[in-house]
Design goal:
This protein has one domain: lambda repressor-like DNA-binding domains (434 Repressor (Amino-terminal Domain), Orthogonal Bundle). With 67 residues, it is mostly helical. Helices cover 66% and strands 0% of the residues. The protein has helices spanning 3-13, 18-25, 29-37, 44-54, 58-62. It is built from five helices and no strands.
């Protein structure tokens, strides 16, 4: 699954909009839109912020499978 699909699933699961995610995290809406629509990937700080916001690990966010 692409990062954009995973992020869209999280937005749907938590029932939040891009605008709300932007307001709550301080991540610009244009950046979030780039992740969802242009295939861009988040940097380290954004990954940390998203993990804390959604209360998930970086492994879950980036879909890293161990073992």
């Amino acid at each position: 699954m692409k990062f954009s699909e995973l992020l869209q699933n999280l937005l749907t699961e938590f029932d939040i909009t891009q605008a709300k995610l932007s307001r709550d995290t301080g991540i610009p809406k244009t950046t979030i839109s780039g992740w969802l629509n242009a295939g861009r990937l988040p940097d380290y700080n954004a990954i940390r912020t998203l993990c804390m916001y959604f209360d998930i690990s970086a492994d879950e966010l980036l879909q890293i499978k161990k073992g």
